[in-house]
Amino acid sequence: MDRADLARHWDLTVRELAPLGGGMNSQTWTATTDQGRYVVKAVPAAQATPLANGLALARHVDRAGIATGAPLRTRSGELTARHDGSAVAVLRFVPGRPLTAADQDVIGTTLGRVHLMLRDAVAEWQPFPWLAEDAGHLSVQPWIRPAVSGALRAYRELGPLTTGALHADPAPEAFRLDRGHCGLIDWASAHRGPLLYDLASAVMYVGGMAAAGTLIAAYLETGALERREVVAALPVLWRLRWAVQADYFARRVSTGDLTGVDSMADNAAGLADACRALTG
């Protein structure tokens, strides 16, 4: 991807294009243009539909008042363009500092507001949960398949949960705080499922159930979910979220995927974290 490629697909005059890095599932660049600053994201062509679905949700939330890095449409009116085996999107740059685990109140409040904004969003999604117990990569270590199966079994034993559109990976660094306003970027993993899955993801990233009291309380204050549903089912969804993490890193280990990391040791570390959470 170069400046000429961008200008061919988007109505932009690109002055500078620089690698951004940081993504484990995509390649990214910052684009300085006469029209403003943007982020360019490229994913494998097989992920074009999930990316477009996520961008549509980002656009919905952005219009409702939370900055998301909404996509700029191509010259032909699409959310993405195909280039060299990839699906490419140009996203509006969202200013602000990435949040950390110390910002639990902001994370919980913003996530709850996003869920309320997405209540009426409609899209086609892969059925939840998106785990296959018979997947070959779950054999890379002996504990993985039983742990994933156990997490899925516990989830299936729950009663009906409140479902909706999900960000699906609300890590602290996906939130951007700028002059009192918090945005939420990185929508390429968006899905549909129990809203508790997003809350469980946020809880996982700030240190687990025992450490996330402030985040959970802030989320509940928004009214996105009833307290009784959170109390009854969040621990089960937290385990399911770790099962997804185990599946993700097992696949990367199995295929030798180094996207966004320096070495296989980083994938092994992610798998070890999941092992501690699911078997410890």
Automatic annotation (TrEMBL):
It holds the Pfam family APH. InterPro entries: Aminoglycoside_PTrfase, Kinase-like_dom_sf. Gene3D superfamilies: 3.90.1200.10, Phosphorylase Kinase, domain 1. Transmembrane segments: none annotated. Residues 17-224 form the Aminoglycoside phosphotransferase domain. This is Aminoglycoside phosphotransferase domain-containing protein. It comes from Actinocatenispora sera.
